[in-house]
Input
Amino acid sequence: NAGVTQTPKFQVLKTGQSMTLQCAQDMNHEYMSWYRQDPGMGLRLIHYSVGAGITDQGEVPNGYNVSRSTTEDFPLRLLSAAPSQTSVYFCASSYTASGVNEQYFGPGTRLTVT
Amino acid sequence: AQSVTQLGSHVSVSEGALVLLRCNYSSSVPPYLFWYVQYPNQGLQLLLKYTTGATLVKGINGFEAEFKKSETSFHLTKPSAHMSDAAEYFCAVSEGSENSGYSTLTFGKGTMLLVSP
Output
């Protein structure tokens, strides 16, 4: 199993550009999430999905869109990049056994917006 | 609403010394608690978790944590630090219920563990 994969590993964007961060998992997990990590802030939840076709907002959703057309894939779209979106982005997948949300993380995408 | 507080953004220990990383949580329902570790330029890896049952849980790499409901704490310990333990550690909480379905994870801000020879 590859687990959770993310592409690209690094990206530099200019303000106003758009792009999609890719995330895929091969563990048949029902749930997937996107987080951003900023120094001293821990991980903050952007969006999450509880199954194909079902998404919801997390703590910091503004400026980001998601969709979930398959169980395996959960792309994150930046509509118009801003310097405040410079961050490291992590995708995670999980299943719940007896309600326990144990998450498996991808290696991250480091995004710089100039 | 749930929240996590990790005391100390940086903790320094000598190799062979006790490691203690502090985590306090708030949750309106019985919580599920997690510790994750992040090595430089990598994703997060689960160290250990508490769901129900025994309050002292053991994880990978010799780490353990004790759930203390009265203190709303879930501190992480290791008897003897190794150089390879240098990393950032995150405590996380989710609402615990067998029937609640999906519950999001809330992370603390992290504690960087520095180990000196």
Chain A touches chain B through 27 residues (CB under 8 Å). The first strand of chain A starts at residue 4 and ends at 7. The mean pLDDT of chain A is 93. DSSP finds no helices and eleven strands in chain A.
